[in-house]
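Quick one:
INPUT:
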């Protein structure tokens, strides 16, 4: 029920929703409407519209990350470790509309877009749904390691499937009865 709302549009006055540092943990929030700057550091200023997390143990858990924008990478999340998150309707101008690098466990990525890797870009995905995303290059994912996940096209890894996960809609990724992901 708690929302951390950023501010757009992308540019000088843009505000991302959250920064999670080394060993930090963010649990149980909705991170919505964040945006990044369009100049400055490609990494620190132009990436991570929803959450910018360090690669050294920063955790985001049980969160909804939605409707965020990054001029470069990670519209929803830039690095970090995501647990039990819904990453929905985010956009990145370059790579990883939903998530850029990092790792995700028990997460759903739908309705995200980017130039490359609409859902996720590289990183590790375990027991995740990465489906119904958009990109000119690899709509759901661009490379990465997947295990026990649902995405298309098929990617090598233990327990991966390509079946449509049967979500209510990309904006509301609740699984419907008969979903192969239940």
């Amino acid at each position: 029920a708690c929302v951390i709302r950023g501010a757009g549009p992308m540019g000088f006055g843009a505000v991302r929703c959250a920064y999670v540092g080394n060993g930090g943990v963010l649990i149980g929030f909705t991170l919505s409407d964040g945006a990044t700057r369009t100049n400055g550091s490609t990494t620190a200023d132009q990436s991570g519209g929803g959450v910018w997390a360090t690669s050294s143990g920063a955790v985001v858990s049980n969160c909804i990350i939605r409707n965020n924008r990054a001029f470069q990478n990670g519209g929803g999340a830039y690095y970090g470790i995501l647990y039990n998150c819904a990453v929905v309707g985010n956009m990145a101008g370059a790579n990883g509309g939903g998530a850029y690098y990092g790792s995700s466990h028990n997460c759903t990525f739908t309705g995200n877009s980017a130039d490359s890797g609409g859902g996720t870009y590289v990183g590790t995905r375990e027991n995740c749904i990465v489906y119904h995303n958009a990109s000119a290059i690899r709509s759901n994912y661009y490379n990465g390691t997947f295990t026990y996940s649902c995405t298309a096209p098929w990617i090598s890894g233990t327990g991966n499937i390509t079946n449509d996960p049967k979500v209510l809609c990309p904006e509301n990724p609740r699984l419907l009865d008969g979903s192969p992901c239940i």
